[in-house]
Write a structure and sequence with these properties.
Keywords: ATP-binding, Kinase, Membrane, Nucleotide-binding, Phosphoprotein, Transferase, Transmembrane, Transmembrane helix. Helix content is 55%, strand content 19%. By secondary structure, the protein is α+β, with helices and mostly antiparallel strands.
Length: 470
């Protein structure tokens, strides 16, 4: 495996894995954005719903106050008929009530039919101590579950008293700070929504109408769908950020989450201000781990591995083909080399055979006395030597395919010069190569020309110089 192949496989794996991871995180990020949008939408709707519910409370106590302003006395059954629609419509309502103003001077007369009570330090209802003014509950809807509340002096508790005094001062509805509900022993906090009622005949206060709300019911019934998205806690800003309601877990992990993900909103609760802290639930904050994203990731990684495997198989196939080509090329080169050696050997043997033939002619020449016969044999010997020289040059050539013409002419003239040393020569020929088919005829022609030139060019005087040019 080459370095280039390794880099190619790594590039395929890196690009494929990066693309799969990018799509994986893109899908999950899309769901994260959807969750964030769902949280923001739920928070906005919650604020609107809570403010609407508080406005409904305001309208209810205004209606009850108006009802009592125009009546001298309202019996229990009439009060129930009037307030039943409110009980059904209001979220988190525990009871609606009427508490007339009873001055301490009239307390004895009032207690002829109902004792005025308050809550002691142990949480029990006991007869109230002397105060200048009392606001005992006399009419209640529903009455059956809360009989023990009848006669309870709302003015005996400081938190409730502060709300009553505020309403007396402004003449408008008021909401109390967080209170402990008398009828509930589970520590759940509640609030009072109340309004002072003046007599139609006299502006003097004659009592208060009030609605008792349980905070957990108010939140769960008002925010039925939104409460699935987040936890929340509500603090009464006017009471020094006293906690009104909270469903946020108290573990350290959730406290850390609370600090990081809190969304703060303020709500106008009639004449008070509530600070609401929304904390999105874990499933809306954590990584979504969407199933389809894992499918895409697995398919992407599998495809990447498959591509790398296919690339590797293709490279292996190419390597095998290349090895076969190299092997076949080597075999062909070896075969060609053997053929060239064989051809060179053939040329060598032909040259040797021609030299043997020349030697036989030379032996025959020594036995002859006739000049014409000797000359004829010498001419044949020259021709044979020219051909032999051609074959010698062929097998001496590295390719065994051609003859260097310049070198051939040089060797040919040296041979002729040995036969007839009485002449000199000059070769004027470029460095070119010719094949055997052209070399043999050319060798015979040049040998014949040189032989004739030596014999016949200058018959009357000694030859000193010949020039061979081609």
């Amino acid at each position: 495996m080459t370095t280039l192949q390794i880099l190619k496989y790594l590039a395929v794996l890196l690009i494929g894995s990066s693309l799969a991871l990018f799509i994986f995180f893109s899908i999950n990020n899309r769901y994260l954005l959807q969750n964030k949008s769902a949280v923001d939408s739920a928070v906005t709707k919650s604020v609107i719903k809570l403010e609407d519910e508080l406005n409904k409370i305001n309208l209810v106590v205004e209606s009850m106050a108006f009802f009592y302003e125009n009546k001298r006395y309202i019996p229990q059954n009439l009060f129930e008929r009037f307030t039943d629609p409110f009980i059904k419509e209001l979220n988190g309502i525990k009871a609606l009530a009427w508490a007339p103003k009873v001055e301490d001077s009239l307390r004895t007369k009032f207690e002829e039919y109902r004792t005025i009570t308050q809550i002691d330090s142990s949480g029990q209802l006991v007869r109230t101590t002397s105060n200048n003014v009392h606001y005992p509950v006399t009419t209640l809807n529903p009455v059956a579950p809360f009989n023990q509340v009848l006669g309870y002096d709302v003015f005996s508790d400081s938190t409730k008293r502060e709300a009553i005094l505020r309403s007396l001062k402004t003449g408008k509805p008021a909401i109390s700070g967080p209170i402990q509900l008398i009828s509930e022993a589970d520590g759940v906090r509640g609030i009072l929504a109340l309004k002072s009622v003046s007599s139609a005949e006299s502006p003097k206060n004659k009592g208060i109408v009030l609605g008792v709300y349980r905070m957990d019911k108010l939140i769960s019934e008002t925010l039925k769908s939104e409460i699935k998205v987040f936890n929340l806690c509500i603090h009464d800003h006017e009471a020094g950020d006293t906690l009104l309601f909270s469903n946020i877990p108290t573990s350290k992990t959730h406290k850390d989450q609370y600090k990081k993900t809190i969304i703060k909103k303020s709500i106008n609760a009639i004449d008070r201000k509530w600070d609401v802290h929304f904390v999105p639930k874990q499933e809306y904050l954590s990584f979504p781990h969407v199933f389809e994203s894992y499918v895409v990731l697995i398919l992407g990684l599998a495809t990447t591995l498959l591509l790398a495997h296919l690339a590797r198989r293709r490279d292996n196939h190419n390597d095998r083909l290349e090895a076969r080509v190299l092997l076949r090329t080597g075999e062909l080169e070896e075969s060609n080399k053997q053929k060239e050696n064989l051809l060179r050997e053939i040329h060598h043997r032909v040259k040797n055979n021609l030299q043997i033939t020349s030697s036989l002619i030379n032996m025959q020449k020594r036995k002859l006395v006739s000049k014409e016969a000797i000359t004829a044999l010498e001419d044949s010997q020259a021709r044979i030597s020219a051909i032999a020289l051609t074959h010698q040059k062929i097998y001496q050539d590295k390719d065994s395919k051609a003859v260097n013409l310049h070198e051939y002419l040089k060797d040919l003239m040296e041979y002729q010069n040995k036969i007839s040393p009485s002449f000199s020569y000059k070769i004027n020929c470029p460095e070119i190569s010719i094949d055997l088919d052209k070399a043999v005829p050319l060798a015979l022609i040049i040998s014949e020309l040189v032989t004739n030139a030596v014999k016949h060019a200058y018959p009357d005087k000694k030859i000193t110089t010949n020039s061979v040019s081609t």
